Amino acid sequence: MYPQVFPRLPLWRAPRVRHSHYYGWTLVVALGLATIISYGTTEYLFGVLVTPMGLELGWSRASLSSAYALMLILSGLLGVPIGWVVDRWGARLVMMVGSAVAALCLLGIAEVHALWQFSLLWGGGLGVATALTFYPVTFTIVTNWFEQRRGAALAVLTLLGGLASPVFIPLAGLLVAHLGWRDTVRVMAVAQLGLALPLHAIFVRRRPADHGLQVDGSGASPQQERAAGPAELIPSSAHPPMLPPELTLRAALTRVSFWTLTGAYACASLATNILLVHTVPYLVGRGYGGVIAATVAGAVGVTSLPGRYGLNLLSDRAGVGPQRLLCLCLVVQASGVLLLLAGGVWGVGWLVAYIVVYGGAYGAASPLRAGVMADQVGRRAYGAITAIQGVPVALAAGAGPWVAGWLYDRLGGYDLAFAICAGAFSLAALSIGLTKNSRS
Question: What are the structural domains, with CATH classification, of the chain?
């Protein structure tokens, strides 16, 4: 049950896997709850810290953004060995270490006074931590536990994980206003150590076969099928008629579809991370209060929840699939960026439109990307394949916030940076639309 290379840890005695209920659903819920903490205390926290840190320490937007960019790039590079480890030995210890590293780095960030210290801890330390705990790892776990019900499992995972931004962005804004940014970061460290780490230690598992189970819980008793969870809402006739190929890493790298999808994901990640880092500073610069700006950014997380669940459930249905839905989401995100620009000039009504339009598509995009890749390459080497893909994606994701910060420092505004966002989303949609559909 436990690979020798990752021995049983007696401090964290995991609960027995019961065969009356498919454990995959328990695992998905636990991963979703841990994801709220993992993303909320790192990625979504950063945008709230940009303005108060810059004011106190005198650092430019480009300098601050470079640390965030380094985090993304390092996380992507480390995804290659981590993906191989997760494929071979599982993710339990990997994710535990990630939560511990994140907590220690956040405690260190609360004490920084020099830019090199911040870059080392945020860019280097949190780069390691996020590589060990973010969606590339959890999506690999879900892919191993689900196949025909994968869309439903990803929907549940990301529905819970989607609470990270509506919970942590406004919370961080309030804490910064009342406690200051340093104590806010300390609170986030406690959340990593006290919540995320125990969830990873207690619930994470490698594959269903390790527990005498089949993927999706198939072949189980009627009682087990009835207890299977949210996927029971999907009729069996809706399952895709063709199973995806089980590609090796080498085979995947020879496919044109791998590279067109990689290019699309890189463009989308560049745009997404510009908005994650610079939406709050943009709105503050346009005259909105810091708490209101953080609330707008957090509200995007709220409006993302229906899309995270509904569109990923829909992706399980034959004739729909995740690829078409992902293409549509990217087009909608491009439109949402234009609404954000309008909101900065013409008022709150446009920001409400941005929250509804962009948020509805934003939430579904990441799990749909995972579904598209699972359909293209299968389960055999999913972690390693998506880790290789993650390198250029991470480079683009890291470049986006830095370029936006550099443009702000020189132009005094974000108009050009956000126009680049809209163009990148549109290019990503075009690339995915031209990629051969794995279900056709």
Answer: 23-208+246-434 (1.20.1250.20)
